[in-house]
Every structure is written in C-alpha cells, then in structure tokens.
Design brief:
The chain is of the alpha+beta class. It has 13 helices and 17 strands.
C-alpha cells in the first residue's frame, strides 16, 4: 500500500464509501450503485457552487486530489473499476454544478450516461471521456472553448516490491481537480453576471452577456497514446471551425520557484500577449514553448488546427513512479495555477474576436506525421526532458535513480544531440527515433556536456 499523507487519511472513509462496484463499460452506462453509496458520492461532491464563489477553494482541490489519488482507486488504470469510479465522481460533479450533459439523448441509459462519450480503441478496454457543457449565450460567437484534463493513469504493477500503486497525484489528479474547480468558478461567474447591473459588468463597451460556450472534457486513455482526446476531435461537441481554443491541464501540482510551463503559445498569434497580460497578477515566471506538440492532449487539438496550450508545472523524479503521491503536491501552487487558468478561460469567453491560428512549419508538420505513423513509444532512457528547450537537442531534466540513464552516467543538463548517428534537434526527433525500438534494445547516444561530446551506449527500458 502507498504511504498516506494526512489529507489522504482523512479522505479514506469518503473514498471507500464512494467506490462504485463496476467492472465493465456497461457500468458507465448504468452503474450498479446503491442508493446509500450514491448519496455518499453526492456528499463528497456537496455544495459545489456555494463555497468561495469567486476564488479558488484550496480545500476543494485538496479533497478532489485526495479522492483521485487514493489507493482505493488503484491508480485509475484503463478499464479498471477505479477509473470508472473517478469518472462517475466527475460526472456527478458536473451534474451538481448544472453543466449540461453532452449527450442528453442517452439520459435513459442510466445515471450519468448522458455525460459519457464512450469509445473503444483497438487492443484496449472500452472506456469514455466525461463531458459537461456550460452553454454560451445566443448573442455570443459560435466558437466554443474546450478545457481538458486526463483522468486515467497507470494502475498497478504487481511485480514491484512494496508500493505497487501508481496513484498519480500530480499526473493527473491535479489537473482534473483544477478543471473541476474552474468549472465551479465559471459557473458562479455566469450566475453573478445575470444578476449584475449592466453598468457594473466587466466589459460595458460590448454586450456583457455575450459569452462563449465552455466545454469541460475529462479524457480517458491519455496514457496509452492520447486516445481519448483523439476520439474527441474526431467526434467533437462542436466542430474544429467552431472551437476557439483548447486549454489543457496536465500535471499542474508541483509549482516550484514560480515557474509555470506553457506549451503551444505559438499556436495563436494573440496567445503570448494574452498570457503575459494575465500573468502579471499572479507573478509567474512563464516558461513558454511556441510548439505545443508533445505527449499530452493538446496535441490532438493542434493537429486539427485548433489553437491549444498546455499548462505544466515542470519535470520531477516522481514522473510515472509510485512515488507520485499527494504529500508532494504543492496545493498553494495548484491554487494559483487554477486561478490563472480560470482567468484565461474567462477572458476567452468574453473575447468577441477569433484567434489567429498559426500552423507549424512545413518541416515540423512532416516530422509530426512521420512520428504519428510509428504508433506509441514503448521505451524510455530513464529521465524526464527539460521541456523549455525547443531545438538544438533534447536537454536532460531529472534522471530517475536506477534507470538506464543513471547507470551510464547521464546527468541533468546533458543534451542529447544524436541517437544511432541520427540528428536529434527536438523532442519530436527524439520520440520518433525511440518509437522504432523495443525494451532491451541497445542504442548509441551522442551527448553534449559543456564543451565535451560524449558517446554512450544505453539499454532501453519499458516506458510506463
């Protein structure tokens, strides 16, 4: 079992009462939940609107992360009862907030079924995205905003000694908790606007009630290749032409030194100035990357020419480890990120002009197509990249103890410039090359360390 922080211990009785006894996708359609357990999930989700209506409620973030990262949910692996429990919890929160279900015609199929976008990817268990809608006004632009986060994680590994549960407190209980709190804040904001005299509204020069629709999408199957978000963009609530932008919240619970990474800032011409303007009140040191192409759900939207950004609080040694536990989450930092992302969504909802999508270079698009054709990457060298470096190689971030990189002496700050004599200019090149390999393969690396160029051989490990 995992070591439990005080927050997790407090929440254990709540989680245990809220576990839903379901083992197949049919549980999503019609969960076999007793009335008493249903009531307990509602208690966990109680008073979704009333508390702290205008600012982020840190106690809600703590409670939601504790729920999602509990041992009782067993790592929220794809196809597991724990993942389905988390999805029912999210759908119930959407219902209590008054978000409209994306699929009202399915309401007769069972509790919460109208919030589920079900799908099955070849070779994987059936699963679903959870989607709730905060409707815009009739006089607003037809373009909607998507706020997304993935809820699935890595489940359990019985081959491990000791703790075998990948609780994923930061990846991505933190992002889903932030999304739920943003949904509450924006729901309250809409209610307040309806009851505020026009002269006191935020934007008196335009119709202050002309607000865009906001779609809250909690994706499944991200960890096995962004399958949930890929399914969504192929079957969207609103088509790509009617989607203004996507905001992705993935791993936002480890804010350090005020450094907030934002990927995809170059996907819309206006985005850098919008982000800079809003960040002044939050004192973030924004580390931006123009390209948003990466291993998270914004990638699915960018490939359909929708401006998309990814908020991320930086690499750490607990990535995809059982040590990604709630006691390492910086809740004060998560609160700041949640408020900032909420402010961005509020601005975009008010914005009457479209964003100007900026496609990547033709060369980059060719590289991305080549990478995507190779399928999912199955191997790892045993470190997390420093995502702030966009070109000139892949900079090594935290090195995982006991992994291949550590065994051959790779250090944080090293830059990988070639693999098997193929030039590595970016993370796209790096990922594309590694997708041709299997665990146990030996590769040759060329590494820059200061002025030195070091040749190294590494045996690849399975990627979790």
């Amino acid at each position: 079992m995992s070591s439990r922080s005080p927050i997790t211990a407090i929440s254990t009785s709540i989680v245990a009462g809220a576990i839903l006894a379901c083992t197949t996708i049919s549980c999503l359609q019609s969960p076999p939940v007793s009335t008493s357990k249903d009531a307990q999930i509602q208690q966990t989700n109680s008073s979704p609107i009333e508390s702290s209506p205008h600012i982020c409620d840190i106690s809600r973030l703590e409670r939601d992360v504790a729920f999602f990262a509990s041992d009782d949910l067993a790592g929220r692996g794809l196809g597991s009862a724990g993942l389905q429990t988390a999805q029912n919890y999210i759908a119930e929160r959407f219902r209590l907030l008054g978000l409209k279900p994306a699929y009202p015609d399915k309401s007769s199929s069972g509790k919460h079924a109208d919030y589920f976008q079900e799908f099955t990817a070849h070779g994987y268990p059936a699963t679903a995205n959870v989607i709730g809608i905060l409707p815009g006004t009739e006089n607003a632009s037809s373009q909607a905003i998507v706020i997304g986060a993935h809820i699935d994680h890595l489940g359990t590994d019985p081959q491990l000694t000791g703790d075998q549960i990948f609780n994923g407190a930061e990846d991505n209980a933190s992002g889903v908790a932030a999304l739920l709190e943003i949904a509450r804040l924006l729901t309250n904001w809409r209610v307040d606007l309806k009851n505020t005299p026009n002269s006191l509204k935020d934007n008196p020069t335009a119709d202050p009630l002309a607000l865009r629709t906001i779609i809250f999408a909690v994706f499944s199957a991200e960890e096995v290749g962004l399958l949930g978000s890929q399914h969504y963009v192929r079957n969207p609530v609103t088509p790509a032409s009617a989607t203004l932008a996507m905001i992705n919240l993935d791993s936002v619970g480890r804010l350090r030194d005020d450094q907030l990474y934002v990927f995809g800032t170059g996907s819309a011409q206006e985005m850098p100035s919008i982000l800079d303007g809003l960040s002044q009140a939050y004192n973030f040191n924004l580390i931006t990357q123009s390209s948003g192409i990466g291993a998270s759900d914004q990638n699915s939207f960018l490939t359909t020419e929708i401006p998309a950004i990814h908020f991320f609080t930086g690499p750490h040694e607990d990535y995809h480890k059982v040590s990604d536990e709630i006691d390492k989450v910086n809740f004060a930092g998560l609160e700041r990120v949640t408020n900032y992302a909420s402010e961005l969504a509020r601005y975009l909802a008010y914005r009457h002009r479209p964003l100007t999508y900026v496609p990547g270079s033709k060369q980059q698009q060719i590289k991305i197509e080549k990478m995507n054709k190779k399928g999912n990457r199955k191997v790892s060298i045993g470190f997390m990249p420093d995502f702030a470096m966009e070109s000139g190689g892949v900079k090594v971030g935290p090195v995982f103890p006991g992994g291949p990189a550590a065994e051959v002496g790779i250090q944080t700050g090293d830059i990988i410039v070639a693999i098997d004599n193929e030039v590595v200019d970016s993370l796209i090149d790096y990922s594309t090359i590694l997708r041709d390999h299997a665990p146990g393969d030996t590769i040759s690396l060329t590494i820059k360390r200061g002025a030195e160029s070091l040749p190294l051989k590494v045996v690849l490990q399975e990627r979790k």
